[in-house]
Design brief:
The chain has helices at about 35-50, 70-80, 95-110, 125-135, 190-195, 235-245, and strands at about 1-5, 10, 35, 55-65, 80-85, 110-115, 140-150, 150-160, 160-170, 170-175, 200-205. By secondary structure, the protein is of the alpha/beta class. The chain has a single domain (about 1-245), classed as HUPs (Rossmann fold). Helix 3 packs across helix 4 (about 125-135).
Length: about 250
């Protein structure tokens, strides 16, 4: 069985985000980029499943410009067997991404598609569900535990009401949560080996998919408002006087 893992290149969550002066987006020039942390957890789980004998091959796929090859090479260094870049310079929203991944799934015929529950830049949490709907496959979202049961997959998922346990038939789409695992670090020998692993680049125009990005438009991106400086009060009575209009 193949496991296909979709990964996204995002801005490093540990650096300060800067909005462009014209408000058209965030600054990415000379900014450190990394694999989306949720996707890295999905990749780690796919590699563990292969190590346990549940999969024969782990494939990383990403959609973006040529710089995404760096992210895919990181995935290969972590343990993926090969990678696919769907090269595209224009930004895509969740539905278009799901359509592109649908074509990749048709070509690769994986038994399981995995990805993070959301990307930390858009926080949309839509692509896994849309892809499952397009494929007409079972899906499990927010997975915090996976157990293979023959041709079925037992999934523990995290919800607002607590933990929920599902059993789904494969092939299936699974999106993962933070508590599923702790991703490994890429060792130097594996980083060197990753340079020789296959990475296929496919221009998006070669895929049989009609993309329309007119449904969602971003008008402007704004910086967070600067927090006002607090004041010091001399007594509890003065504090109550200050907050009374707010809680009234």
């Amino acid at each position: 069985m193949k496991i296909l893992v979709a990964v996204k290149r995002v801005i490093d969550p540990y650096i300060k985000i800067r909005v462009k002066p014209d408000g058209t987006g965030v600054e990415t020039h000379q900014v450190k980029m990394v694999m989306n942390p949720f996707d890295e957890i999905a990749l780690e789980e796919a590699i563990r499943l292969k190590e346990q004998g549940h999969a024969a091959e782990v494939i990383c796929v990403s959609i973006g410009d040529k710089n995404c090859q760096e992210t895919l090479r990181h995935g290969l260094a972590l343990g993926a067997d090969r990678a696919i870049l769907i090269e595209n310079d224009a930004p895509l929203h969740s539905l278009s991404i799901a359509k592109v991944l649908l074509e990749v799934v048709k070509k690769e015929s994986p038994g399981l598609v995995m990805m993070g529950k959301q990307a930390i830049d858009s926080d949309a949490n839509q692509t896994p569900q849309m892809l499952a709907a397009k494929l007409n496959w079972p899906q499990a979202t927010f997975a915090s535990k996976l157990v293979f049961l023959g041709k079925k997959l037992q999934v523990v998922r995290e919800t607002d009401a607590g933990l929920e346990e599902l059993e789904i038939e494969m092939p299936a789409v699974v999106s993962v949560d933070l508590r599923l695992n702790e991703p490994r670090y890429a060792t130097l020998p594996n980083i060197m080996k990753s340079k020789n692993k296959p990475l296929t680049v496919i221009p998006i125009a070669e895929l049989d998919v009609a993309l329309t990005n007119t449904e969602i438009q971003t008008n402007e991106i704004l910086r967070p408002q600067t927090r006002q400086k607090g004041i010091m009060v001399e007594s509890l009575a003065e504090l109550l006087e200050k907050i009374r209009p707010i809680i009234a």
